[in-house]
Amino acid sequence: MIGRKVEFEKLQSAIEKNRAQLIAVYGRRRVGKTFLINEFFENKYTFKHTAVSPVDEVTKKKKKNLMKLQLQEFYYSMRSYGLDGTASVPTGWQEAFHMLQELLAKKDNGERMIIFIDELPWMDTPRANFIPAFEHFCNDWCLARKNVKLVVCGSATSWILDKLIHSKGGLYGRTTMPIYVSPFTLHECREFFRTDGFKFDEYDICQAYMAFGGIPYYLDQFRKGLSLAQNIDAILYEDEAPLGDEFDNLFTSQFANPGILKRIVQTLSGTRIGLTRDELVRKMNLSSGGSLTDNLSALEKSKLIQEYIPFGESDPKYKLIDPFCVFYLKHVVGNTGAPNYWQAHEKSPSVISWMGHAFEDVCWNHIRQIKHALGIDGVITKESSWNIPSEPGRRGAQIDLMIERDDRFICMCEMKYTRGEFEVKKDYGISLLGRADRVQEVIKGRKSVMSVLVTTYGLKRNEYSSRFDRVVTLEDLFQK
């Protein structure tokens, strides 16, 4: 098991408590939630059920009978755990959970009972009346027994948060242990590859993260003996590539209305700094109502997009932050089926440009490691970026990361992804001074400005290198 120490500790804490537990494990599709639970409980359950996937071909063909299909599979799971074979397939969820209660009651000998329902949100199909039935099962049976530990899991993060963890209905306050499973960090990606015997160095692992975002299942598709570029071709571009349909499946598996959410993500992928709500409405020709609020909230809860307030501004923007979605929309759409596509294009200007931007996203996802390298772990901070507009006689600029600190400092961070030490040329050195001056104008001298370089292999010393006060390297980003 790579990483997941905190998650293991939370599970251990929950099952050791002398009272009933409702444990909700959630996180992005393919991040390893089910693997974590199965490893912890060693696949030893009083009852286990996995809901039918909405992205399976069988499910796609039977959308009109999806509730019936989910109930049939639930029935077969109960049969495999000892349900009387003379019982009929339930016609609704109220009946289904009553059948499960009777089955579990017969198994209850006072010992700990582990009940695991995987991909719970998929069971909540349209007009299924699932939530009231599940609420009654939890409140009337599970949570009334000290020895019962009910573990539910789901990739539909917004559903888990809205309907379960933050429920305002019958499940209000019932979740005893919420556990979010996050993608791997760079450190964990390196541990994953080394454990599997890969010879990738940190530079290659960083690139793998740029394309696949630290998702264990995606990384598990890599094959030894192939270079990084060959692996990317095999995983995404070849005919029958294992992740060729993953972008569409990501949305179908996580959201009830995948079409509009996919459109929002596609629109945001066209800008590095993101869009305000009004800009998004204009670009997509949408109405700025409650449905847009709900859709943006669902994407943010799923950590596909991020809301932030640009430095010196008041209107929040939404930006796409999921590395896989960014990469897929930038380089994979329209290019699948082309043999050796990535190997032929990895040194092209568009890919070199993408690497620079993708490294910025890597840094945004490793703020904790950057703060540690700067020695400000305990300082409260707020992160943003800044698109400096052009003015007469003054060029505009983009500052990749601004870290505003409560100790009256601002770290103005520049990210540079290079194959060797980064060299500050004269013109760039002058522009750095200009950017620092612009920041001071905005804050009116109320804070000190520190220039920070975040790069792969450090800074080449010359007469302009002192423009940076601190340097953070790839080695720092790979720390725990």
Could you please describe the fold and organization of this structure?
The chain is α/β, with parallel strands linked by helices and 480 residues long. 44% of the residues lie in helices and 15% in strands. It folds into four domains: 5-180, P-loop containing nucleotide triphosphate hydrolases (Rossmann fold, 3-Layer(aba) Sandwich); 186-244 and 336-360, no CATH class; 247-328, Arc Repressor Mutant, subunit A (Orthogonal Bundle); 366-477, Trna Endonuclease, Chain: A, domain 1 (3-Layer(aba) Sandwich), CATH 3.40.1350. It contains 21 helices and 13 strands. It has a five-stranded parallel β-sheet with strand order 2-3-4-1-5, with helices on both faces. Helix 6 links the parallel strand 3 (113-118) and strand 4 (148-154). Helix 4 (66-80) runs parallel beside helix 5 and helix 7 (157-165) packs across helix 15 (290-301).
Detail the topology: elements first, then pairings.
Layout: H1 5-16, E1 21-26, H2 33-41, E2 47-50, H3 57-61, H4 66-80, H5 93-107, E3 113-118, H6 130-141, E4 148-154, H7 157-165, E5 177-180, H8 186-195, H9 202-212, H10 216-219, H11 228-237, H12 246-254, H13 258-268, E6 275-276, H14 277-284, H15 290-301, E7 305-308, E8 317-320, H16 323-332, H17 341-345, H18 349-364, H19 367-373, E9 381-388, E10 397-405, E11 409-416, H20 426-443, E12 448-455, E13 470-472, H21 474-477
Parallel strand pairs: 1-4, 1-5, 2-3, 3-4, 11-12, 12-13
Antiparallel strand pairs: 6-8, 7-8, 9-10, 10-11
